[in-house]
Amino acid sequence: MSGFLVSAAHKSSGKTTVTVGLCAALTARGRAVQPFKKGPDYIDPMWLSAASRRDCFNLDPFLMTAGQITNCFRHHAAQADICIVEGNKGLYDGLALDGSNSNAALAKLLGLPVVLVLDARGMTRGIAPLILGYQAFDTGILIAGVILNQLGGARHESKLRAVIEHYTDVKVLGAIGHDPRLAIAERHLGLMPNHELDDAEQRVRAMGEMVAAQVDLPQVLKLAGNTSPLLAPARSEPPAEAKVVKPAMQSRVRIGLARDPAFGFYYPDDLLALESAGAEIIPFNTLHDTCLPEVDGLFIGGGFPEIFMAQLQANAALRQGIRAAIDAGLPVYAECGGLMYLARTLQWKGQVYQMAGALPADVVMHERPVGRGYVELQTTADAPWSPGTGIDSEPLRGHEFHYSSLENLAPDQKFAYRVVRGHGVDGERDGIVHNNVLASYAHLRSGAGSDWAARFVTFVRSRIASSKRQTVANMRTVEVNGQLIATDVEGYLKNLDDWSEDFARAEAQAEGLVLTDEHWQVIRFLRAYYDEHRVQAQVRAMIWHFAKAWGPKHGNNHYLHELFPIGGPQKQGNRLAGLLKTKGEH
Q: Which entry of 72, 83, 291, 336 is annotated as an active-site residue?
């Protein structure tokens, strides 16, 4: 195994772009590259995974013990030719005064040499004392080379190389010129996730080509080969979260996973832990799917629901189906963005959009972070997954990064956590408990001591009932004037007496149909025909009627299907008219 850690003098040095480029360039040359990311981060690992075509795992000295870090690293390193760890912030930055959770400490723990990415804008001779200072600050760290970034041109590069060669013994592994085309757009949580960009694959390829052209890859591989033999035992025992045991089929539970551009913040080791505990993960899309898959529980992770709130509101069928499932007792775990989605409304930039309405809270976005950084939580007696009852002795550790707050919570709202460190919902509490839902601003990591995945699967399994699963799978709801009206998954009323014109409007909105006067004429004809004959109208009866009413140009089967594009007048028309599901023409 060989590897190295990529760090910088400070954040925003271009470290992620260079690391993604290194992963892409080496992968393109046939190397099996295993990426890691130091600290709590979802977005950088998405880019690193795309570049290496392998899941990126997080190594976090605050959330994980030294043993957990080395165990995770050894296990995944054993499957690769080279490991690349991207640091966060600067090499010596960290929470602790003694640097025990810094990038340097992680490099020392894993026995990795360090490659420094230095933003060289505006620098010439001053780069030498910077490098010398970083070497002298901790002589236990091997700074094996530097990659100069954001260079102003060939002349600038030659000056920097001459200075570094004259004053230091550090190798210049590469020199990368400023190229605005390779910049990744940022938003309030950092870089934009790669799955939101149509050209993400091309960007990754361009970063790889840039690094291949401007970085000495053979020299990088040579220095990576000097990794400490302390980590050499390759085929180590996998960490707990990676031991995917296939339980007996009758014991497996189906966990729906919201995975789409709005929700994508998941740690791969958490998903492995869910599978290890006996879960079959069933992805679904909150933007496009109109009903839930058949599941025993849901996991809705973090993301950017505020960016997609118009699309989330437009998918009323899924929102209402999730609310109905939760009201029926479906177990759900939601983190941050998932919490926001389950609330009643989401307000941002003066606009208010409807969310799932499953939690008694309203979400308001702010310009500045409300909660940011690591958290420590003490579980309360209301925590649904706490082992036994009462309060755990050891605090749970996690992290939060949210720009939103909750309003209009009930005074008697139950919470799973008391906040020891961090902000959570209100500075004192986090983890809303409602029905079988636990929704919090905190992000936990199962492999970092919380063991939430196994606890959640156990909780789901304890609440499984085949009748409930069938009810959830075959039911959705439409919200009409604040009331939930039950339909089947296709939108046909469960109770014909629940029909109203407002139901027709709400169902049409859920199906993306704008009702015109002609739609209403068809709907009223269908209802009148049913009232008179107690069966749905045949297509030929509709054509005969509307040929007289509208003339032959519009009174025909083709035009009726244009009006009702989802199944035609016998299906979509009857749904909106609140009538029974047809079995072909009568």
A: 336
State what percent of residues in the chain have pLDDT above 90.
Answer: 67
CA angle 580, 584, 586 (to 5 degrees): 85
Residue type, 82: I
The answer to whether residue 336 is catalytic is: yes
Specify the DSSP element, H or E, that contains 544.
Answer: helix 539-550
Measured distance CA(339)–CA(441) in Å, rounded: 7
Compute the distance between CA of residue 277 and CA of residue 289 in angstroms, rounded to an integer.
Answer: 27
- pLDDT band, residue 143 (cuts 50/70/90): very high
Query: What is the maximum alpha-carbon separation in the chain?
Result: 98
- Please report the pLDDT score of residue 183 as a whole number: 60
* CA dist., res. 396 & res. 400, Å (int): 13
Nearest alpha-carbon partner for 3 in 125, 131, 142: 142
Judged by average pLDDT, the poorest of 32-41, 210-219, 384-393 is 384-393
Strand order in the sheet with 143-151: 57-59, 33-38, 82-86, 2-8, 114-119, 143-151, 171-177
176 sits in which H/E element: strand 171-177
Task: Name the percent of the chain lying above pLDDT 70.
Answer: 88
- pLDDT tens across 124-139, in order? 999 999 999 999 999 9
Total count of residues recorded for the chain: 586
State the Cα–Cα distance between residues 123 and 127, nearest whole angstrom. Answer: 6
Q: What is the rounded distance in angstroms from the CA atom of residue 238 to the CA atom of residue 510?
A: 46
Confidence (pLDDT) at 465: 52
Mean pLDDT of 371-377: 94
In angstroms, rounded to a whole number, what is the distance separating the alpha carbons of residues 326 and 14? Answer: 44
CA-to-CA dists, residue 142 to 13, 89, 137, 138, angstroms: 20, 18, 11, 9
Rounded distance, CA 18 to CA 89, Å? 14
Radius of gyration over alpha carbons of the chain, in Å?
28
Residue 6 backbone dihedrals phi, psi, to 5 degrees: -100, 125
